[in-house]
Amino acid sequence: MILNLAAVLLVTSSFTVHTDTTLAVKTGVRLQVNNFGGEIAISTWGKNAVHIEAEHSFRTEVGIETTEGAIKVETRGRRGTPNATDFKIVIPAWMGVKLSGLYTDVEVEGSQADVRAETVKGSIKVKGGRGYVSLHSVEGSVSVEGAQGKIELESVNEGIEATDIEGEISAETVNGDVVLAGVKSPSVEVSTVNGNICYQGEIAKGGHYSFATHNGDVGLTLPDDASASVSVSTFSGDFESDFKAKLADTGGKRFSFTLGSGDAEIALESFEGTVRLRRAGEKCDESR
Amino acid sequence: MTHEWTDRLSEYLDGELEARERARVEAHLAGCAECARTLAELKAVVARASRLPEYPPEADLWPGIERRLAPRRRLLDLRALLSGGPRVSVPIPQLLAAGLAVMLLTAGAVWLALERRTTLRVVPGPQPAPVAGLAAPDTIAPEAAGAVAADFGFSRYDAAIADLERTLSQHRGQLDPATVRVVELNLRLIDRAISQARRALESDPANPYLNNHLADQMRLKVDVLRQVTALIHA
């Protein structure tokens, strides 16, 4: 009897509930999703409406609150911590999103607006994003493609990848590689502690570019006509270059040189790794 | 003390509230000893900050300082992470540690920017370009004669780190053990970098890059510890 009751309770508690709703929205409304665990998958369409689907346990409640400026979606445990919930949400491309979670993977595709995502134990993948794109995971990887604007990418224990991005860019992790390709930016700042850095992109006139790692290599693939003042700093590392340059020793194992007329500033630092400058067309193979 | 009132206290202290809201906060403060105590401690942080020595940057250095600060000022936004979920109450020691860290970062960044001026100096007489294998540190003449080891702020970073590590140690049981393992792995990586940078500085104490690098690693450790200790209260 008791076993039967327990079995019924177990089955009941693990029932999957399907939430499915569509809300009309006015231009300018933002979406906020806070999902304790599971997945948040955002895609876009041409309608001024938000379609929310969620698969969740009977013991987890999905709350949807609409205010004048935002739609707020969150998971709540009926008794304690919410169970994992998978969201599939379709939004207008113009809608800014703010997504957060602890044990949550985040995916966004097709956004033409701000994208902010933060998770602790999950990865973040974004295709698109305009304006302010801020992606932060503690234990997961962060990747972005085709974003434009102010782009901030952070992880702690995984790598960061960005492709075909444009704007002011910063990328920082502790234990992972940072790979940036197809970049158009006047301002790039990249750092990692235990990882390599790979950069392929334009060097804008007057731009500032900083790449720093402790225990890894730094590889930059630059256009033949790159014009920049380059400084290289290391403690026990090496420097290799496809570009011929006269070096000016600035003390320690630091030196600088000028490519073209030196219109941009590039700072390259690796405490114990190799710094490499390659010409366009050469593959950046620093990523592990 | 609710989060609503915590937010209001910051705004109240910053003089950002309208008269009506300000009166509401003051009425609440009159009957809430905890909020009154919190306000007093916040005021103490502000007062402490105002007593810090000033290192005004030269105007032309500001863009560089700004570049260094901007991408790093962001921390895990717990309020956003938990919006609509359980309310977060950050204890006063955390607030004090965070305030101290911000002060240190600002002062440190100014110093670093000033120190960078030496990095950009070009020594006359270009040298042949080595393709690989740079000379050992002790084969290159040291920086300017009379230069001293730059340890500005490092001891204070140490203090902030010790505070945050103590908090983490006391509350680690509240975190997912797997997360703790991952965080500790990353902290060890940063510690190793800090240790190596310190050793390198012993052989070349005036090296701006090494000073810079050490400061960056310590700043990163403070960031990571702050993120993790914030999670404790989530």
* Secondary-structure-derived class of chain A: mainly beta
Provide the low-confidence segments of chain A as ranges. Answer: 8-12
- Number-wise, the strands of chain A total 24
Cα gyration radius of chain B (Å): 22 Å
Q: In terms of quaternary structure, what is this?
A: heterodimer
End-to-end distance of chain A: 57 Å
β-strand amount of chain A: over 45%
Secondary structure: helix percent of chain A: under 10%
Low-confidence stretches of chain B: 51-92, 109-150
Structure, described:
The complex is a heterodimer of chains A (288) and B (234). By secondary structure, chain A is mainly beta. Chain A has two domains: 15-130, Pectate Lyase C-like; 159-288, no CATH class. Helix content of chain A is 4%, strand content 61%. Chain A is elongated, with a radius of gyration of 23 Å. With 234 residues, chain B is an all-alpha fold. Helices cover 65% and strands 0% of the residues of chain B. The longest helix of chain B has 28 residues, at 92-119. The chains are: A mainly beta (288), B mainly alpha (234). Chains A and B meet through strand 2, strand 5, strand 7, strand 15 and strand 17 of A and helix 8 and helix 9 of B.
Q: What's a quick, concise take on this entry?
A:
Chain A is mostly beta strands and 288 residues long. Helix content of chain A is 4%, strand content 61%.
Layout of secondary structure:
The complex is a heterodimer of chains A (288) and B (234).
Chain A: H1 2-13, E1 16-24, E2 30-45, E3 49-57, E4 60-66, E5 70-77, E6 85-92, E7 97-111, E8 115-119, E9 124-128, E10 130-137, E11 142-145, E12 148-154, E13 160-163, E14 166-172, E15 178-192, E16 197-201, E17 208-213, E18 218-222, E19 228-234, E20 238-241, E21 248-249, E22 254-259, E23 264-270, E24 274-279
Parallel strand pairs in A: 2-5, 2-6, 2-7, 7-8, 7-9, 8-10, 9-11, 10-12, 11-13, 12-14, 13-15, 14-15, 15-16, 15-17, 16-18, 17-23, 18-24, 19-23, 20-24
Antiparallel strand pairs in A: 1-3, 3-6, 4-5, 19-22, 21-22
Chain B: H1 3-13, H2 19-31, H3 33-51, H4 62-69, H5 78-81, H6 92-119, H7 154-171, H8 177-203, H9 208-232
Helix pairs in contact in B: 1-3, 2-3, 3-6, 4-6, 6-7, 6-9, 7-9, 8-9
